Every structure is written in structure tokens, then in C-alpha cells.
Amino acid sequence: MNTPDHPGVPAAYHGVWARTLLETPEGRDTSTWVRWLQTGLWHGDLRVPPDAPRDTPEGRAQTQGFAGTTAITRPDAALPEVCTWQRVIDFQPPRSTPDAGHMVFETPARVIETGIHGLYLEVWERLPGSLGRRIALARLDADGQPTAERLLVAGVYCMHLRPRVAAWPADLVPGETLGDLIRRHPTQAGALLDFEIAFGRKEHGVWTLERATQPALEGQVLPCALHRVDAARARVERGPLAGGWQVLEWVDDTRNEAIAEMHERP
After folding, report:
1. E-assigned strands of 33-132?
2. What pTM was estimated for this model as a whole?
């Protein structure tokens, strides 16, 4: 799926990254659960705060998550690379500024991101087992056409992203959060929260969910037998993700995964 506009993300960025630190002028955060899954072009991101009351609509609305394509550029040779996350679907309302940061690799498995359109620093560390296999799929509808729903795989990790059907309320204003909208439109809370992002390990045809925008999914162990049908199509045979999917990306190189992770060990 590489094109002149999207030449592909360098291998240094592939895998699943856990955020271990966020620093902003307001303080430090080391407790929010954050995973960024990156294939050769596509990304998925899920962020679950530790203290949100997730049994309420307002608490669930504090979760963040999105998916889309990723671009790595270096507009100025004197500055670090710029990573831009071009969001296609988003749990939260649209941002007023691009999602982009300067990236500096301290080690192959540790990268520092600093803000371009905001004051922040984030530390990302790559999870073991997240290299080698890179898959990005789009769900096919009843007519065989691709939808905005995504299934992303990096190594032994899998992320599923299904966007909401409901449109944003007509009175949405720039800078609002999902929580703001739910407080103003409480009768629409169910429709606005109907957006599924789920992350976990997928091994031997079984997907164990670790975190999700819908708390009831967490801890579930679901069948997920994924195989490629041909160059353009794949299928999931069992479980809630069963059905046909369009192949956006499919790379399986477990030999190079083992070599890369050996070099990352301290």
C-alpha cells in the first residue's frame, strides 16, 4: 500500500510502543495505560487513564483512541525526524492542531517524542514480541466494500478499531472533548460512546483482551483465527471479528523479528 504520498514507515518505528512517561507544563504522568501499534503504514492508539470512573458515561469518555496512517519526514536536516499521525477515525472529537512530534531514538527500543504544536515530552518503549508480523485489514461490508473498521497486528499483539455510526452533534465546537459533548447531550451518550477499540495478545488463534474503550471487553479470551485468502482478502473464521477483510498490509517475517529483538536486549 505504499505510494508517493505514503512511502511507508521506517522499520525503526514498527511494533507496539508503551508510553512510560508524559511531561507537560501541568505535570508528569506515568500511570495512564497507553499503547501505540505501528505497522508499515497504519497505526492504532489507545489511552486509558487509571482513575477514570469507567462505570459512568463521563468516565468512559475520558479514554482516548484513534487510528490512521503515519508519515515520517525530516523537513529540516538540523532537526529530528517528524512523526505525523494522520487520524482516519477518532474516539474523541477532531483535533484543532495536527498530531505530530519530533522523534529521537535513545536506543532501538526507546524513543523520545517532543511536541511541535504543544509543549510535551513522551517516552515510548517497544514491547518485546511486537516485531516481525505486520498486518492491517479493513472490514468488508455485505457488498464487499471496505469500511473504516480496522484490524491491526504487530507481532503477537492485535488491535481492533470499530468507529461509531453516529455523527458528531451539530453544535460541536473546536477544542471540545467527548466528555463535554456527553454532558451537553446526555441522551446521545450511548451513540457517542459506541466506538470500540480493543487491544491484547493474539496467539494460537486466541485473542486475550487487555484494555478497551468498552470496559466489559477487558479480560475476555476470544477466538480469532486469521488467515489470508489471496493478495487482496483475508478472513477471520471465529469470534466477534469473523468475516471478510481487505488486506491493506500483510508482512510476516518472524526470523527478522528474532534477530531485531536480540539486538535490542541490554
Report:
1. 33-38, 42-48, 64-73, 81-90, 100-107, 110-115, 121-126
2. 0.92
- Taking alpha carbons only, the member of 60, 35, 26 closest to residue 178 is 60
At residue 241, the 3 state secondary structure works out as: coil
CA-based nearest residue to 155, from 123, 196, 199: 199
178: amino acid identity, one letter = L
Coil vs helix vs strand at 76: coil
Give pLDDT tens digits for 147-195: 999 999 999 999 999 999 999 999 999 889 999 999 999 999 999 999 9
Helix (H) or strand (E) holding 22: strand 15-24
- Taking the C-alpha atoms of residue 215 and residue 233, their distance in angstroms, rounded to an integer, is 31
Measured in degrees and rounded to the nearest 5, phi and psi for residue 60 equal: -65, -30
Handedness of CA 213, 215, 218, 223 (dihedral sign): negative
17, 137, 183 from 50: Cα distances, Å: 18, 30, 21
Q: Which residues 6+ apart lie within 8 Å of 162 measured at CB?
A: 139, 149, 195, 196, 197
For residue 23, what pLDDT band results from cuts at 50, 70 and 90?
very high
